[in-house]
What we know:
This protein starts with a helix and ends in a 17-residue tail after the last helix. The chain has helices at about 1-10, 20-35. The longest helix has 17 residues, at about 20-35. The chain contains two helices and no strands. The chain has a domain at about 15-35. About 50% of the residues lie in helices and about 0% in strands. By secondary structure, it is mainly alpha-helical.
Amino acid sequence: MYFSALTRRVVRHGDFPSRQDLIDKIDTYVIEKNTTAKPYRWTYDGTHLKAA
C-alpha cells in the first residue's frame, strides 16, 4: 500500500525535468510521511480462519 500511495501522489502525474528532481520529490514525500506516520495496529490473533 505504501508504494501505491507513493506512485499515486508523487510519480503518476508528476512533471520531472531531471532524475534528481524526481529523487528530491520522493525524498520529500518519504520524510513528510515518516513525520506524520501512525503505527499500524495488528488485530489478527493467530487463530485459523473459517473456510468460506
